[in-house]
Amino acid sequence: MKIKSREDLQALRDKYRDEVIMRLVSDNFETRTEINVGIGETGLKTGARDTLKTFFDEVNLAKLENVSVIAVDCIDRSNSPVVEIKIPGKEPVIHNKVDSAKAKALVAALKTEVQ
Amino acid sequence: MNPTRLQILICGGTGCISSGCLDVETALVKSLENHGMTDEVTILKVGCFGFCEQGPIVKVYPDNTFYVRVEAKDMEEIVESHLLKGKPVERLLFKDPETSVRYTHHRDMPFYASQARLALMHCGVVDPEKITDYFGVDGYKALAVAVTEQKPKDVIDIVKDSGIRGRGGAGFPSGIKWEAAYNVQSDKKYVVCNADEGDPGAFMDRSILEGDPHAVIEAMAICAYAIGADEGVVYVRAEYPLAINRFKIACAQAREYGLLGKNIFGTDFNFDITIDLGAGAFVCGEETALLNSVEGQRGEPRIKPPFPAAVGLWGKPTIINNVETLVNIPQILLKGADWFKSFGAENNSGTKVFALAGKINNVGLVEVPMGITLRDVVYKIGGGIRGGKKFKAIQTGGPSGGCISEKGLDTQVTFENLQKAGSMMGSGGMIVMDETDCMVDIAKFYLEFTVEESCGKCTPCRVGNTRMYEILERITKGHGTEDDITELRNLGETIKATSLCGLGNSAPNPVLSTLDNFMDEYLAHVHEKRCPSGKCKDLVKYVIVPEKCIACTLCKRVCPVDCIIGERKVIHEIDQERCIKCGACVDKCPKDAIITE
Amino acid sequence: MAQTNIDTALFAKLDEYIDGLHSKQGALIPVLHEAQRIFEYLPIEVQNHIAQKLDIPASKIYGVVTFYSFFTMTKKGKYKISVCMGTPCFVRGADKVLAKFEKDLGVKAGTTSEDGMYSIDALRCVGACGLAPVVIVNGKVYGRIEDKDVEGVIEDFIAGEGESA
């Protein structure tokens, strides 16, 4: 397509922003919010990958630009899948036994908090 | 899973391709297939991360893990441990050679900590072969605003106000140059991008073309709009196939979206770009020589004035800007002149990219704010001298820059300061030398280059540099006299003052600066017929230290001319008359008993 | 035109390129690039041919060909060995590497061996300074080469038939 105006360009920018935004913000350790999902051995058995995928999708859908979803090693084996949410300037919060439904709820809550 | 939330970046600059990043990519694709993760991960080949010493580099997002010296066989472990189980592969993280600390994030590494990436902002972030990535980082917005909302004069004023100076060498204020071309009435004007990066050891322009080609296109279009041009030429070294290819792809994409061509952003502004290949002539980095080359002539410089801004390509007003200068322009328009001025030093706003190389631990491409000291570049970013050797000199500005010694290490890097120190900014090569380098030999090396590359048009450069080279040749062979040193200085100063172009004006710098800073080495060569670093073969004498020799005959057996006397249990000796100074015995000796004097 | 033993099909290929140009203004250097790609070198016959096609004096073309180091009037060997002599490679010992190649293959830099097998060139800078000293043989890059590695490099490219990596 030919870009014919500033608005055309803005629309393309918004469309493709998702693909690069993560690379741009992931250097901002001080300001970004991190969602750390434990996906070690135990996590894999208890469905942590589904939780992770839900987080990826939900954060994208919610257009939370300054939030990074990171897969990490197991955080707490007995309560897996465990998710740690770190918002800059606040104490990290641990959430136990996070399934997809709970993940959706957490992102929804996060949306009001970080935006 | 949305693949954009898990991305693996593989450095695809020429340096990393040379060290095997293509195999790494193949291995990664295969590992992902094996684990059924192909749909979950986006693989991107991006431009240079700068840390070439440690290539190939692989970066995992979003956790931002920075793996170095990755080989194809490591990829399975990265997929299995890191991607699948969340455990980064410790052994592939960068380990500081001095402190043994391992770093997960590149931002914490001393190599990156003192850098400020403006020109290289998108290198290693956007996929250079995808215009959509560039859209995502507000690409072409500066051009859009310029052509739809700003007058050409407004654009020129912002560039002038930012204080940006040409990054190709001379440091002429870009805004003033643009204004000059704007003020000339003409039916046709040109914008030329100088990517004929001829300085050995400097590769920032190539890295920018490889890593962020759209920013160069956007900047050229902005310049064209500002001065009233409709045609652009990129003059790039034929030795840069990857950069040429990526730039061609980028131009094709820009055309597809109507960002090059007619009626850009629905206005009456037209602009398109052609690519011209250089053919290996250093002098073509000089702007008027470059113009002759584009016109299909020998690349000899023209007499200035008239300046190209008035009479340039095919006799029309032409702006010639270097790649690194151009790539800063879109950000200056987006973020404002004050933002740009917040980096750097007085009259030297912004940053400069340097290619750090030579006897230094961290070889690579670094971008620092103007005004940083050479000491910080060498020790903080460069990680000090390789192999624990002693620093001797740092050479800046390419083959016609000067060598700065230990006592100049606290020089703050600005166009003026480097000139005062007998060197220059040039295009940004920085080559570090240690105690084993002979400065007379280095001066000779550079002069050999200049003699070879002198276009031959003007006498001081063509003949003068050859004479200087002959004198240096004499000195390094042990036939030099004190008069030769005086003659070197006279010649050097005459050539500097009377040559036609920048090449001749600066060619004697390596000699003059080493005369200023390392006179003792010249004197040792002339008076004592001795080369203190043992580099000048004709002045070196190999001797065996009797106390260290264990009479093992290893050296005797390796000597190609049988000039080592002695046998088992008889301490060896070298017959100086017959020795050809090949150094083979030194490498062989298990006790380091053979020394040079 | 001078007697030539060069394949006429190659000239046809070059003509096709020249005829396809939309403007002959400033076309000389691109044409020389293309010609060198087709013929591998630019002998006088080729230069004369271009002179006629572009209507430029042959002397001028000779002047341009000899000015630029990228253009060559001698045919390169089967194995094209380029030793980077950029400063970073030089200070890390590229001069010794070059000397070793010259000695082992009996060919001086800038020339081709009589049997047409090897040509050695001192290259200016490939920008892979992290790998200094760098040697390139038919497109394959060998990094961090010291003079003692030269024999291994020669064995490697002969074994690999000099395939590009």
Provide structural commentary.
The complex is a heterotrimer of chains A (115), B (597) and C (165). By secondary structure, chain A is α+β, with helices and mostly antiparallel strands. Chain A has helices spanning 6-25, 41-45, 48-61, 100-114, and strands at residues 33-38, 67-72, 83-86, 93-95. Chain A has 4 helices and 4 strands, in the order H-E-H-H-E-E-E-H. In chain A, strands 2-1-3-4 form a 4-stranded mixed beta sheet, with helices on one face. In chain A, strand 3 (83-86) and strand 4 form a beta hairpin. Chain B has 597 residues and is α/β, with parallel strands linked by helices. Chain B has 5 domains: 6-112, Glutaredoxin; 131-340, 3-Layer(aba) Sandwich (Rossmann fold); 351-434, Ubiquitin-like (UB roll) (Roll), CATH 3.10.20.600; 439-527, NADH-ubiquinone oxidoreductase 51kDa subunit, iron-sulphur binding domain (de novo design (two linked rop proteins)), CATH 1.20.1440; 541-596, Alpha-Beta Plaits. Chain B is built from 24 helices and 21 strands. In chain B, strands 14-13-17-15-16 form a 5-stranded mixed beta sheet. Chain C is an alpha+beta fold and 165 residues long. Chain C has 2 domains: 8-67; 79-164, Glutaredoxin (3-Layer(aba) Sandwich), CATH 3.40.30. Chain C has helices spanning 8-20, 28-39, 44-54, 58-67, 87-91, 94-105, 150-159, and strands at residues 79-84, 118-123, 135-137, 140-142. In chain C, helix 1 (8-20) runs antiparallel to helix 2 and helix 2 (28-39) packs antiparallel against helix 3. The longest helix of chain C has 13 residues, at 8-20. The radius of gyration of chain C is 18 Å and the shape is elongated. Chains in contact: A-B, B-C. At the A-B interface, helix 1, helix 2, helix 3 and strand 2 of A face helix 3, helix 5 and helix 6 of B.
